[in-house]
Amino acid sequence: MLSFGNWTLSRPMPAQESNFQVAGFGKAQVKKSDIRLDADSDSTKKAMDTISRRGACVTSIASSSAASLEIEVRPQGLCEGYNVRRLHRDDYHKGLGALLSQLTVGDLAEERFLEMFHLRESQAGVYHTFVIEHLETHRLVATATLIVEAKFVHGGSFVGHIEDVVVDDSHRRKGLAKSLMDAVAHEAQRLKCYKVILDCNETNVPVYEKCGYRVGERQMRLDIPPETSASGS
Amino acid sequence: MLSFGNWTLSRPMPAQESNFQVAGFGKAQVKKSDIRLDADSDSTKKAMDTISRRGACVTSIASSSAASLEIEVRPQGLCEGYNVRRLHRDDYHKGLGALLSQLTVGDLAEERFLEMFHLRESQAGVYHTFVIEHLETHRLVATATLIVEAKFVHGGSFVGHIEDVVVDDSHRRKGLAKSLMDAVAHEAQRLKCYKVILDCNETNVPVYEKCGYRVGERQMRLDIPPETSASGS
């Protein structure tokens, strides 16, 4: 075990020069070129501070090579036995559909999941879907999606929209929602959003207030009937 | 003048075979291959019905060639002297920044506008920004943006988010907001959204209720401070 201030790595980190490029959460590349990994060096402290501000901690070294070192990063406070990371293409069989069905109606077929996953990938930079995986069962037990909107207002800036937040019934009261929302907020900050907004029913207002949110505007909704004509496109 | 049922074209439409592919509003391609443009033919009526359901009317023939015919389509009820269409790259000098400044703070520099326009174009299918142009002054007097979100819930479906709706102070009380919101809603329908949502302050609830919207959920908001560290990316 190696400690850097408040940080502990589960395996010793080689004493090469490295640079933390922490891209949100999940795995992070540590390039062995820019800063020394001495516990006392200013640059190491800066890298650790960057992770710290994002509410994350380095939990383990995933792999290392001559050129780089891959570390696992997760939000501070995330319950033991869980991992927060981005959604992968092969996550369908880890119970994503069952998890989302706790949020609203509609079965998610694998083919449709892959179509939508591919569509989202083709619109690079818009969708950032996070999941929490229960490490023992390899099931997804929470998810939330950040949509990054490029705006013309505010001088041309970015706003994050959070959609489809759900924590599995049987994994509640462990602070998973807070860890998930922290991960999303830190990603929004990294992507230079000046605010994030979400819509929820009145019952869930206190949940988001605990995550630092405040009540904002009113959502208005228009339901749209599908087009029925054969000549409609 | 030529009439098809309730429809009037400002110039006679050549009696060739054509197919209406009405992509929202603005200009629409009419391909001379699929259906006959006889006033009494079923296929012409179908094409006209499709436009009608979208609350649009054909206002003029913009251009024609051997292969296709371009017609101007605009929402029914749009005040004379105005045109609703998609935002173009060269619209910056038609007063977009001044219009948006009535909505919120922040000057929009031309360079930044073009950066954001390019970014939005690279994320094909997400952004659909409509504007209303005052034909006499060539100034943009209203705008609204539809963002189409690809969802995993609802069996893999689409939801429209409406953002940054504004009508110029000096062009109000002419029904422009209604025409604009109709255009956006019909585009959302064409793009297979099952609902559209937007956030507004309590004062504007009646405006959207007139457009068919109902009060929905609560918006929650989190303001995000920018990252300040030199090592932050």
UniProtKB/TrEMBL annotation, chains A, B:
A Pfam family of this chain: Acetyltransf_1
Family: Belongs to the acetyltransferase family. GNA1 subfamily.
Signal peptide: none
PROSITE patterns in alphabetical order: GNAT
EC number(s) reported in the record: 2.3.1.4
GO terms assigned for molecular function: glucosamine 6-phosphate N-acetyltransferase activity
Domain N-acetyltransferase: 82-231
Gene3D superfamilies listed in its UniProt record: 3.40.630.30
InterPro entries the record matches: Acyl_CoA_acyltransferase, GNAT_dom, GNPNAT1-like
Alphabetical UniProt keywords: Acyltransferase, Transferase
Name listed for the protein in its UniProt record: Glucosamine 6-phosphate N-acetyltransferase
CDD domains reported in the protein's UniProt record: NAT_SF
Catalytic activity: D-glucosamine 6-phosphate + acetyl-CoA = N-acetyl-D-glucosamine 6-phosphate + CoA + H(+)
Protein species of origin: Polarella glacialis
GO BP field: UDP-N-acetylglucosamine biosynthetic process
